[in-house]
Amino acid sequence: MLKLEQARIAETEAEAKAGAAAGTNAVAKARKELETAKKKATEATATLAEAEKTLEGKAATAYKPEWFYAGCLIVVGAHYLPFITLYGQPIFGAAGVLMAAAGILLPRFRPGEFATGGWLGAAMLAVLGIVLGAAHVARPRTAHSP
């Protein structure tokens, strides 16, 4: 009976060693897969960053560089439209529509001019700032509002 117990113990030890070896192999395999995944993710991120750098500023201006500021006017004008409901001020709607319209119409009526859109956008933003500042000053104050 003692030999039977010793045989069972030896068998259990052998199974434990085999399981530990298999576990070690599984851990090593998982680590290798993790390193491979990290390497692929790093490569994909680098490729994406390179693609962004390549496409940056080229989508609207690949063939017509003078469209750059016109495109900026459209983007800035469109981004003002949600402010109508966000801040409750309809002036943002007027500003957004005017900027987007200027961005669309500028290349049609002034083709070939690069800086005109930039100056027009700067003037529109300055006027918007003055109008919003005047509206803020004229706003009625209550005891709990700043």
Unreliable spans: none
- Write down how many β-strands occur, each being a DSSP E stretch of 2 or more residues: 0
First-residue to last-residue Cα separation: 91 Å
In total, how many domains does the architecture comprise?
2
* CA-based shape: elongated
Q: Characterize the largest beta sheet: strand count, sense, and whether it forms a barrel.
A: none
Q: β content, as a range?
A: under 5%
The number of distinct helices, counting runs of at least 4 residues, comes to 5
Radius of gyration: 33 Å
Comma- or semicolon-separated keywords:
146 residues, mainly alpha, 2 domains, 78% helix
Structural commentary:
- The protein has 146 residues and is mainly alpha-helical.
- It has helices spanning 2-55, 68-80, 83-87, 91-109, 116-138.
- The model has no long low-confidence stretch (mean pLDDT 79).
Q: What's the SSE blueprint?
A:
Blueprint: H1 2-55, H2 68-80, H3 83-87, H4 91-109, H5 116-138
Helix pairs in contact: 2-4, 2-5, 4-5
Quick overview of this protein structure:
The chain is an all-alpha fold.
